[in-house]
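Exercise: predict the fold of this chain.
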Amino acid sequence: MTKKKWELEDFIEQNQRRVYYQMARLQIDEWEGDYFQEGLVAMWRAYENYNPDKGPLTTYMNFQIRNRLVDVLRQSIVERKYFEQLGIQFKSETQSGNYMDGNILPFEREGKSNPLAIMAQTNESDFLKLTEVLTEKQKIWFNHAIVEGLSNQEIAEKEEVSLEAVKSWAKSAKRKLRNMDWERQ
């Protein structure tokens, strides 16, 4: 059995339905994109590497196309999971409550009062009045988070308490400070 020589364009025109068929079997909806191109390349490589003594060319091409599409599909799933993880990590890093984006704290962007601005506008006696409404735990959070700039996780490790406890201190302290700021106006 001899191998027939094809021109690339003729070969693709006559056999591209094989790629579409394999894409449909794998439930890939992207008909003219990267998957299709990968299938065409796999089909051409199968044609070039074909050994007539091993069996029919069509079976070999279908096998190679399907395997290449599965590989590309798996690779895209891994990449998508990687980028999702990066997004989750970025979100957790930037929304921890202490992240400064252009010197604007997250609660400033939301239109809420800023404890740093309150601190800058007050003298020492006002600062004592500001913190006297806070409990001891809230003062600990205030000192570590606002003054020292530590994250809630770092405060939890430093104080040897759970992260949820530190978040609770922060939430109630912020609420009290906001209420104080509104009472001043």
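Check your answer against the key: The first helix runs from residue 8 to 25.
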